[in-house]
Specification:
By secondary structure, the chain is mainly α. The chain has eight helices and three strands; from the N terminus they run αβαββαααααα. The radius of gyration is 19 Å and the shape is elongated.
């Protein structure tokens, strides 16, 4: 490809997950336009407050990622464009929470995005609205799953304390639910707030 980053390639020109001899699509690395091409986009009229404009326009957006069946909805704004942007952010977060990638815990090294979130005092700091958040969440959950749900095994591999990892997981309800599903599948107790 001439001067085109992998992120910008048309999804139709890339390999599907599991296709032999080709690299699978990393959904979080796709730009918004490429990710939207992989989605079924439904617009509809949202109910609730907002007056005449909300009742006359199809401003609510529902995205369904065709290959996974993941569905997200955004209805907060009277603007379809704002709702589409919100839905894309929610879809990236949902992908990070629900789709696991295999990780070899013995060979694991933190990725470049996660490393940018580590402080000098070995604390992982990333806000939920930060564009890096879905990438960090996915990497953490992939590693926790590879470590059979044991935070005490995953935290040192991330370069942080178990307390910091636990605090990060309980800060976000959906992240906590995903981590607890991994732990329960491994026969461990739920994490609590």
């Amino acid at each position: 490809m001439t001067g085109m980053a992998e992120d910008d390639r048309d999804p139709d020109q890339r390999a599907a997950p599991g296709e032999p001899g080709k690299q699978a699509i990393d959904l979080l690395e796709l730009n918004d336009q490429a990710l939207l091409k992989l989605c079924e986009v439904h617009t509809y009229r949202a109910s609730g407050p907002g007056g005449q404009k909300r009742n006359k326009t199809d401003s609510a957006v529902r995205l369904r990622l065709a290959e996974t069946g993941l569905v997200v909805v955004a209805t907060e704004s009277r603007s379809q464009h704002e709702n589409r942007a919100r839905a894309l952010r929610r879809l990236r977060h949902t992908i990070a929470l629900e789709m696991r990638r295999p990780v070899d815990p013995d060979r694991y090294e933190p990725g470049p995005i996660l490393r940018t979130c580590l402080t000098r005092k070995s604390q992982l700091q990333v806000g939920m609205r930060d564009a890096r958040y879905p990438h960090v969440v996915r990497e953490i959950l992939d590693l926790v799953a590879a470590c059979s749900g044991r935070l005490s095994d995953a935290a040192p591999k991330l370069g942080i304390s178990t307390a910091n990892l636990s605090a990060l997981l309980v800060r976000d309800d959906k992240l906590l639910q995903s981590a607890n599903r991994i732990r329960l599948a491994a026969g461990l107790k739920r994490l609590k707030r």
